[in-house]
Design brief:
Blueprint: H1 7-12, H2 16-32, E1 37-41, E2 44-49, E3 52-59, E4 63-67, H3 70-75, E5 84-86, E6 89-93, H4 100-113
Antiparallel strand pairs: 1-2, 2-3, 3-4, 4-6, 5-6
Amino acid sequence: MKKYNQIEDYLADLAPMQLEVVQIMRELLLDAAPGASEVISYNMPAIKQNGQVLVYFAATKSHLGFYPTAAPIVAFADRLQNYETSKGTIKIPYDRPLPVKLIRDIVAYRIGQAGGAKK
């Protein structure tokens, strides 16, 4: 597996359809977490705030993987019933629109866990 150090390098290796979805997710996450920075962590794009990674995301062949850690999967279980999930993963199929409100709410939850908004 190729090792990524920069998000631009990660993006350059995506198929056009994957790139489109990942770019939308990237913009959504940065808008949902003002002041957050982008990083590569575990070889995936992620956003970090207050020294803590809030969420990760990655393109796969059949879906966009959204990795907000385990607690939001439990906290938002009722709103995630239409998605395949596991302990820290939400699989968002490419043939479905991104659940913008849900993603924003999960990011807000993670910001709260990370100690609030950057000052």
